[in-house]
Design brief:
Structural class: alpha+beta
Helix content: 55-70%
Radius of gyration: 38 Å
Number of strands: 21
Shape: elongated
Length: about 900
């Protein structure tokens, strides 16, 4: 009773202080400066008196703003870092290639195009070099005199003479070489029987003078996202332009005027580049015709002239031989030498004419940075995170508005008497309303500041720890987007303040006299459950009271249910994304991909490399044997539809082996019914279909690695979870491209453990295979591929859990404050502490159960939506939530409720029975 007496005295003291404030107002009516000071003091007192409510709005706003800004800011920081790196190394904006090379006239024409700041011709080829005991592919490129695509110098000096080369750090690490050692490369693989490729650079040994980083490759050396690019060259070399032996450029790199000032991932940059690409398109046809004229008219004429000149020289030499003594050894030797040289010259002229007769159309290909693999990977990863950042903040916002509405409504009800006094003293409705608007606005502003700190600093730094494993950049840049910051804070401020205004509207309409009287308790009425007699009669007294209270406080019950349902749905959604990323591996590598090995060789060496594979199998190399194999043709092609392009892996199956395909790859449609590959069928993977928007029956363009273009009609969409794939038969390919399909790859089924299969795949690379893809190795490295999505899911799930805790805590405290007189009454009636706790907590647990039950289907629907929201290149994110995830989400909801109940039990213990039951008059 002493504690109750002290609480009563403290409350009387607070009332006395409040009356003194109004007395001060009356005596200071003539002073306009005093009124705002007293009124402002009332705002501060309200904040102190309801600090828990104030902090709940702060925390909810901070969580919502940080999620809304932070995930997007992390993506923008990654894109800004890549853009700054590309600008620093002067990476090209546009790359122009031609099927028959580009000349100085082409270069001059491109330089004159509107919007082109710098254009430079470069020499490049895909060659082969020795890495240990294997031959690996390497892209060799000439250094730019205009510093376009300037490699990052790590050690040494860039090449200056024709016999020097700069190699990447990745090559030095793999080969064990160092600066000062020599390396050789050739357009033709030394172990290959194919010697038809032409060298762009002089053959021979090159001295390594520098260790560099490729400016166009920001991907790290880890296995992350390995499934995105299965057949890219492994290394890159840089040589002096003096090493080039070709008379035509391999490509022209273009720097667009004003493009550096724009972020290369922005719409404005894309518009700028597309404008200049359009300008280059205007001269394309003219330059193609000029090059065709040169090759088909000028070059044959030059050949004829050169042949006539050669014949004339050979005739003069023959006349000289005829003057020599008959039967002499000198004459015989000279004649044999002449015949040999003439035969060689005739062969060269014949080969040149044959090559000219086989020329197809001269075609230009104008590409932008989207053709750079790592550039597209960054765009893909950032877009996947932004997709998550688009959905989650919306639920945070709705919950924040509803909680604010409940909080503001309770606060206004508690201050009815004070509002009545304000109105009696002559304060306008707007002035009184401004007190509560300021209360909500300050909470939003403080929460917004905290949210901005977390969003623009904390979350990006967290994401950078994941990005560091995926990308190799000199530094990650933090940025601050003031527009995004203001919009996110303003959005929550408008929602929370709007809810506050709605809560105050009814009270402001009443007269001062009615406001200063206690609000009449809500009228009791029969609830629905009372009408179900066989249930109601079997319920105990406290259970009936709990049921009546749940139906009596409908608004609070609805807020609690919706808040818990929303938070449960967020947790389920986050865990569903995680479940899906885990399930993709067995779906792809255990169900769709049935082969154990995909090996790709040069078409001319295919029979030879397959024979070597059989020999290793017979010898049980690494304890592995080949059980069966399916020869195929494979290539990385560009699939274009509706102005969008995707890099896909083309698989061409021999007409007589299509029935065997199901043993190596399962083709199935979206309903998971099997697809049979027949002549004329073209099947595109689901991931490509989502990105491109193509439908069965649509026609698209396909460009292969040799820049040949064909039109194909998509027959159906096949499920493929990891990677983009295009399937067709040999006959279909040959009709579409007008050329024969040359087998260069093989699907292989192996017998042996996963570790043995991985070891086997590494060993056979020295047999002349260009690329080896081990399914067991992909499966083993799979987890790293989704590090970024999993990290974001953990982050968002944690924040959803925090939101759930704040929601339950706020609504529980509101529940207690609304029913303080009721709870004081039952304490006076003799309820013990445990009984009071049970009386209140039972209702919270029931509402939690209802909210969690509604959150389960809501979370499932929200998670399912990410199948279409997360449209990532090379990935079909077919969301499915495991039953355990639903259980964990519900358990978390109840766990937070139990924790909150433990905290609010202390509040129940401190209820002042005398003060709460004292009449307001």
């Amino acid at each position: 009773m002493d504690q109750d007496r002290q609480n009563s005295l403290r409350r009387d003291a607070q009332n006395t202080e409040r009356e003194q404030d109004f007395t001060t107002y009356r005596t200071a009516q003539s002073s306009n400066d005093m009124v705002p000071t007293v009124f402002r003091r009332g705002i501060y007192r309200t904040i102190r008196g309801s600090l828990k409510r104030f902090l709940s709005i702060v925390v909810i706003t901070a969580l919502g703003v940080s999620v809304m800004c932070g995930l997007k800011a992390g993506c923008e920081d990654l894109c800004d870092s890549v853009d700054a790196y590309f600008d620093q190394q002067n990476v090209y904006d546009i790359n122009v290639q031609s099927t028959y090379g580009l000349t100085d006239d082409d270069l001059d024409a491109i330089q004159e195009v509107d919007g082109v700041e710098t254009a430079e011709g470069i020499y490049t080829e895909t060659a082969y070099t020795a890495v240990g005991t294997t031959r690996e592919r390497v892209v060799v490129q000439s250094l730019s005199k205009e510093n376009i695509d300037q490699p990052v110098l790590v050690n040494g000096d860039l090449p200056e003479s024709a016999d020097e080369v700069a190699v990447t750090s990745k090559f030095l690490k793999a080969s064990g070489k160092k600066i000062g050692d020599t390396v050789s490369f050739a357009a033709n693989d030394a172990s290959s029987s194919n010697q038809s490729a032409k060298d762009q650079f002089a053959a021979g040994d090159y001295t390594i003078t520098a260790e560099v980083l490729d400016p166009t490759d920001v991907s790290s050396d880890s296995t992350v996202n390995a499934f995105r690019a299965a057949s890219a060259a492994d290394y890159k070399f840089y040589v002096s332009e003096d090493a080039a032996t070709s008379s035509s450029y391999s490509a022209v790199h273009v720097i667009v005027e004003g493009a550096k000032s724009l972020n290369s991932y922005s719409d404005s940059y894309a518009a700028k580049i597309n404008e200049v690409k359009g300008n280059i398109e205007k001269i394309r046809e003219e330059r193609e015709k000029a090059r065709a004229q040169e090759l088909t008219v000028d070059t044959p004429a030059s050949l004829d002239a050169a042949e006539r000149q050669a014949n004339m020289l050979f005739g003069i030499e023959r006349d000289n031989i005829n003057r020599m003594a008959e039967g002499s050894d000198e004459r015989a030797q000279a004649q044999a030498d002449l015949d040999q040289r003439r035969a060689a010259a005739d062969q060269q002229f014949a080969d040149a004419r044959a090559e000219l007769s086989d020329l197809g159309e001269c075609t230009w290909y104008i590409q932008d940075r989207g053709n750079i693999a790592s550039y597209s990977s960054v765009e893909s990863d950032s877009s996947s995170i932004e997709a998550i950042a688009t959905v989650f903040p919306f639920i945070f916002f709705i919950v924040a508005v509803l909680i604010s509405l409940t909080t503001a409504t309770r606060m206004v009800e508690e201050e009815r008497t004070l509002i009545g006094l304000y109105k009696a003293l002559g304060y306008s409705r707007g002035r009184i309303l401004s007190k509560y608007v300021d209360y909500a606005l300050w909470a939003c502003l403080i929460g917004g500041v905290l949210g901005n700190i977390i969003g623009f600093v904390g979350l990006p730094l967290f994401l950078f720890t994941v990005f560091d494993d995926m990308y190799s950049l000199p530094q990650m840049l933090l940025s601050y987007d003031i527009v995004s910051s203001i919009v996110s804070v303003a959005l929550f401020a408008v929602g929370v303040v709007g809810a506050t205004i709605i809560a105050c509207r009814h009270e402001m309409a009443e007269t001062p006299a009615s406001l200063m009287r206690p609000k009449a308790p809500r009228a009791g009425s029969r609830i629905l459950l009372e009408r179900i007699g066989f249930i109601w009669r079997r319920m105990g007294f406290l259970n009936k009271v709990a049921a009546r209270n749940l139906f009596r406080y409908k608004k609070r019950a609805f807020m609690t249910i919706f808040g818990i349902a929303g938070c449960t749905a967020l947790v389920i959604c986050g865990m569903g994304i995680r479940d899906t990323s885990v399930a993709l591996s067995p779906k792809q590598y255990g169900h769709i991909t049935r082969y154990d090995l995909l090996a790709v060789a040069n078409p001319d060496d295919f029979s030879q490399t397959c024979a070597a594979l059989d020999e290793r199998s017979a010898a049980r190399d690494s304890g592995v044997t080949v059980t069966s194999a399916l020869p195929i043709m494979t290539d990385n092609v560009t699939f274009t539809f509706g102005g969008k392009s995707e890099t896909v892996q083309l698989i061409v199956v021999p007409d007589d082996r299509t029935n065997d395909l199901d043993d190596y790859v399962r083709l199935e449609d979206e309903s998971k019914e099997p697809l049979a590959l027949r002549d004329g069928d073209v099947y595109l993977s689901k991931s490509s279909q989502l990105v491109l928007g193509i439908q069965p029956g649509d026609t698209a363009h396909v460009q292969d690695s040799s820049l040949n273009v064909a039109k194909v009609k998509v027959s159906d969409i096949s499920l493929n979870y990891l990677g983009n794939t295009l399937y067709m038969t040999q006959g279909t390919y040959e009709r579409a491209f007008g050329r024969s399909a040359r087998l260069n790859g093989v699907f292989v089924l192996l017998k042996g453990s996963s570790a043995d299969q991985i070891a086997f795949s590494k060993k056979i690379k020295s047999d002349g295979w260009l690329t080896i893809s081990s399914t067991a190795e992909h499966w083993e490295n799979y987890e790293a591929n989704f590090a970024i999505i999993n990290s974001v899911v953990v982050l968002v799930t944690f924040m959803a859990a925090c939101l759930s805790f704040v929601v339950v805590f706020t609504l529980s405290n509101t529940n207690i404050s609304e029913r303080e007189r009721e709870l004081a009454t039952i304490k006076v009636l003799g309820f013990r502490r445990g009984e009071v706790h049970h009386y209140v907590n039972k209702e919270t647990l029931i509402l939690t159960a209802i909210g969690a039950a509604l959150g389960v289907p809501l979370g499932g629907l929200l998670a399912e939506s990410f199948t279409y929201i997360l449209q990532m290149p090379s990935l079909y994110f077919d969301v499915e939530v495991e039953p355990l995830s639903y259980v964990i989400a519900v358990v978390l909801s109840f766990g937070f409720t139990f924790i909150v109940n433990l905290a609010t039990n202390r509040t129940l213990n401190k209820i002042d029975m005398v003060g709460a039951l004292k009449s307001a008059e």
